[in-house]
Amino acid sequence: MNIIILGAGQVGTSLAELLSDENNDVTVVDLDQGRLRQLQDRLDIRTITGHASDPDILLQADIEEADMLIATTQNDDTNIVACQLAHVMHKTPTKIARVRSPSFLNHPELFDRNQNTDAIPINVLISPESLVKDYILQLIAYPGSLQVVDFADSKVRILALRVRAGSLLINKEIRDIKNHLPAGIETRIVAIYRKGEVVMPTGSVRLREDDEVFFMAVPNAIPTIIKSLRQSKLRPTRNIMIAGGGNIGYNLAKELERQKHKVKIIDHNIERARIIAETLDETIIIHGDVSDKSLLVEENIDEIDLFLAVTNSDEANIISGMLAKKLGVKRVIALVNNQSYIDLIHLNSIDVAISADQITTSHLLHYMRQGDTVKAFTLRRGAAEAMEVIVHGSENTSKIIGKRIGEIDWPTDITIGCVIREDHVMIAHRDITIEAEDHVVLFLTDRSRAKDVAELFIPKEKTSWL
């Protein structure tokens, strides 16, 4: 695909890294020559220095040849105008804009051309702050989880857990796990990471302490599965402290209030603290430094069940998160965008480190996939990928329709998680026969296999697309 990325900030850079690795023709536009030079030194991309909403700059970026425009600058107006220009100048098929302002996000009708042909021509609006908020809320909903991803309109979920000491499942073979779950509870382990290495989840593999296990199940079954994987009953997440009262922290507190959690926010900016204090009803607002030990102790940090570090500074999030953990907080989630920082974080200090860039790129990933990919999401900080793909064609044109899962020559390093047929979720086993219009959710431990998967799902008469 020919893709133009406007903005070489964190999100734009993350997208460029992802897309250039997959043999796309990528052009990045930014005003900062230094950033562009650094990108071009590392990646096989083209860069152009200039303003993202300048028609001449878009022409220089070959907007006439672009399949996709992704506007990720820090300025909402620039991103919206750039998408409008791309539509007028070329009718660019897919236009994606990063938008932060609630004034735009609260009025989706401005961008819905199905309802109004005069609407702003943007196919997808992305708000990294909103995506991070939703991601964290999923982690809160399942205490102890490392990652939660929905598929098939939330009919099925992939959830990652670390196997703790004392779990009944330690040293049990995967094929025997069903014997340790209540009747009617179905799950499928789609991947295991052991000391950073992939362990393919065959029936004879035994779970070990500290394994990172990705399992798939319907939402109603997940709490029971979590309880079975843990060694003891988890402490309910009742008292939550949020470091940072920016867009993410504020919106998290707003939602957590509705869910009847007890919430405290610490922010260093007195004006911001006053503003959010006036708009939140139950949340306690504290003006101060999130890494001030005496302040945390004074605010009874030892009574906090969950500490969320979501300031605009990676360093502040890491330091405050590690301090909170040392002071007795059971669970710490920190927003850390710098990959090198994430690699240095000791697992015993911060339970979950999340990246706004990776969450955002994952949200857009299925637009870059071949075949009818409904959703694709990177896992383990981009090391793996989960996909939901629709099966099209007939037995005469498809390589998989009419065949049982066990008969199909799947690419190596993938696990089939489930098949969704209309509203029915079937946890995968080798005797399920694939039918046209089935949704198949699968896990790739090697993301480079995504193209091989697409080739299986695209009917013969459409292989010229590849």
From TrEMBL:
One Pfam family here: TrkA_C
Gene3D superfamilies registered for this protein in UniProt: NAD(P)-binding Rossmann-like Domain (3.40.50.720), Regulator of K+ conductance, C-terminal domain (3.30.70.1450)
RCK N-terminal domain mapped to chain residues: 1-120, 237-354
InterPro entries for the chain: K_uptake_TrkA, NAD(P)-bd_dom_sf, RCK_C, RCK_C_sf, RCK_N, Trk_Ktr_HKT_K-transport
Keyword rRNA processing: no
Domain RCK C-terminal, first and last residues per copy: 146-231, 374-459
Single Gene Ontology MF annotation: potassium ion transmembrane transporter activity
CC terms in the record's Gene Ontology section: plasma membrane
Ion transport among keywords: yes
Domain of life: Bacteria
Alphabetic keyword roster: Ion transport, NAD, Potassium, Potassium transport, Transport
Official protein name in the record: Trk system potassium uptake protein TrkA
Organism annotation: Hydrogenovibrio marinus
